[in-house]
Amino acid sequence: MRLGPFDTSKINVRSSDGGGGGGMGGARGVGCGTLVIALIGAVVFGLDPMQTIGMVESVQQQGAPAGTSGGGREMDEQVVCTSSAYATEACNALTNLNDTWQASFARSGLPFEQPGLDLFRGQVDTEGCGSATSAAGPFYCPADKGIYIDTGFYDQLAQMSGTGGDFARLYVIAHEYGHHLQNITGLANQVRREQQRNPAAANRLQVAMELQADCYAGMWAGKNRDLIDPGDLEEGLKAASAIGDDTLMRNAGQSINPENFTHGTSRQRMTALRLGLESTNDAACNVFFEGT
């Protein structure tokens, strides 16, 4: 995907560099329940997903905008964004994601707030959701409105999906950005309340959240279809297939149990990604909550 260069005045990014504390200037010292995370790595690393995911509990929100202005911050972000090829690519993607979704929200007359992005290796201490290791996979923390990505996961994803193409990696960050959209629109809070009210529906609602985030990832790409290279869609679909719950469980030698699904099957994830890519209506991704 032919993304333009990153613009440090438009993004809020940092690197924990293997476990530094802090976050992206959101809520400091805010307690939260279980991370709202894309637990792609739970099965990949041989963990029982039911031991790592838990049902999402309520999260106290604080509305401070992510990041502050100033040349010092932009200089720091310049260093982070040029620290590796993966970092530069992530910063390029974040710049475009912010521009794309901010414009969509403006057209709908909705308030918009950018997320932060933390690129780390091994482990990270978030400001709102406690600590996490690479076993958690990429995740979004609603309390500090931050996207957290262990860049080492990209190497694992390339092995799993059989493609080292950039669109597979962009799909990951765009999916986590989708969780941010769910957070700032209030949908995430609604889902958490419903999960607590009706525990029997908790897994089904969690899967709906993840499939909608996949759809948003596809929708972002569709809004920038003039930047898509030949083969990008295939790369994204391969990645979506590789991280479907049924495929992950099968590859880990586990029995496939739909009651333990958290993200949807490979087919469901591919369908959601394609739906977003082909949609021209921003409300198309709401289909996953119809009837819930």
UniProtKB/TrEMBL annotation:
GO biological process: proteolysis
InterPro entries: Uncharacterised_pept_Zn_put
Major subcellular site: membrane
Transmembrane segments: 26-47
GO CC terms of this entry: membrane
Family matches, as Pfam families: Zn_peptidase (PF04228)
Entry's localization field: Membrane
Keywords: Hydrolase, Membrane, Metalloprotease, Protease, Transmembrane, Transmembrane helix
Region annotation Disordered: where it falls in the sequence: 1-23
Protein name, per record: Zinc metalloprotease
Organism: Erythrobacter ramosus
